[in-house]
Amino acid sequence: MNERSVRVRVPATSANLGPGFDALGVACTLYNEMTLTLTHEKGLHISARGEGAAYIPGDERNIVWKSIQYLLQRADRAEEFQGAKIRMNNRIPLSRGLGSSATAIVAGLTAANAIVGSPFSRDDLLQLATDIEGHPDNVAPAIFGGFTVNTVTNGHVECFSFLPRIFMRFVVMVPDFYLSTKSAREVLPSEVPMKDAVFNVSHAAMMVAALARGSEKHLGNAFEDALHQNYRASLIPGMFDVFAAAKKAGAYGAVLSGAGPCLIAFAPEHRKCTEEVAAAMQEAFLAHDVKARPLHLRLDTKGARVLHRKESSVKKK
């Protein structure tokens, strides 16, 4: 009897990017890796090390396992593979706004898809991942890499992934506290003024145009937002001061990463600038009694990848 194993790597992501609420995302060079072995016998063995390992469920509640099961059911292979061995090596901080849950979903789907012969395309995986996650802004860049523009029309998800003509680095400040997506969503209003909606449509469009065309001068105000950051500011002490400090130190702009509490600055491609931006953001956070550590990241251009495949024979006892 054969067991099939694959090892996959999935990038961290940042969603919204300021004005692109639930629509824009970016993949970053920080990765979780997972090795999946599907077994014909029932039984679930999950191990995790690294970021947040102590908080990751080791049973049926695990989101990686749920995603694997979802794909197997859709592929009509759930009866064939009833158990799994899952080993996770996590580098992406948990519950910080860097797409850790999306990474888990995409890892499970990508690995299971590879094991059963890749019946689903990346577009198919995007739809499955969005079904699980509820919105595509994190799962899309995790699958495709690059900057992504995502739409959902009558339940159908589409993603346009592109590489910007402006080379930049990302400075991510990771505060020393957690913030659940649920809590960050609860502070948002159910309706917003028309002027705020227009503000965000125009700024999100300007950002995509500036990145695609390579126009740095049009990025200066493109990261501004009126739909979610104002409402979430009370959850992250000093947020707007940190944004201002990043821009003053040379960043194009800074935004809340996903639902937070991480903040991400988009900086020109030279190391001295990113170091100055990181120091300025760290100092601004400290002024509000928040300790934060910097991550210096670049754009991931590949998205989720299968790193290794293995098939081995297992003798029945």
UniProtKB/TrEMBL annotation:
This protein's pathway: Amino-acid biosynthesis; L-threonine biosynthesis; L-threonine from L-aspartate: step 4/5
Lineage top rank: taxon: Bacteria
Cited SUPFAM superfamilies: GHMP Kinase, C-terminal domain (SSF55060), Ribosomal protein S5 domain 2-like (SSF54211)
GO (cellular component) term, any one: cytoplasm
GO biological process, one term: threonine biosynthetic process
Domain GHMP kinase N-terminal: start-end pairs: 62-146
EC class (word): transferase
Keyword Aminoacyl-tRNA synthetase in record: no
Keywords: Amino-acid biosynthesis, ATP-binding, Cytoplasm, Kinase, Nucleotide-binding, Threonine biosynthesis, Transferase
Localization in the cell: Cytoplasm
Matching InterPro entries: GHMP_kinase_C_dom, GHMP_kinase_C_sf, GHMP_kinase_N_dom, GHMP_knse_ATP-bd_CS, Homoserine_kinase, Ribosomal_Su5_D2-typ_SF, Ribsml_uS5_D2-typ_fold_subgr
Domain GHMP kinase C-terminal as annotated: residue spans: 207-282
One Pfam family cited in the UniProt record for this chain: GHMP_kinases_N
Family: Belongs to the GHMP kinase family. Homoserine kinase subfamily.
Protein name: Homoserine kinase
Naturally occurring in which organism (per UniProt): Selenomonas timonae
